[in-house]
Amino acid sequence: MTRYYTVLSMDERLSDFLAQLQPLCLAAIPSALRRGRCHVVWRPELWRDNKIGKVPYSPRGFRASGANPRSWDTFAEAVQAYERGGYAGIGYMLATHQPHHSPPGAWAL
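and the corresponding structure tokens:
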């Protein structure tokens, strides 16, 4: 059996990834997820292992860190950055200092 593989350029892979995203419905985000300074925006980037990842950014324009709450912002600021363009979605950062005691990380919308 012969198998054929299509090799896509990085731009083609990112375009395919973005084409599969559903539009973000801000009205559907519960008010509990809108509180606090734990929001980021994200965009897809190609990682070293050739996989596409959702990389978090501060709404102020620099890479956000799951371990650094100073790189997070309010929901309103994340929405403004998302609407300006250049980002594919909004993320909610989870940290050990929040009441649910989840491990650090991000949940992206």
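(Above: one complete record from the training split.) The two ends are 40 Å apart (CA to CA).
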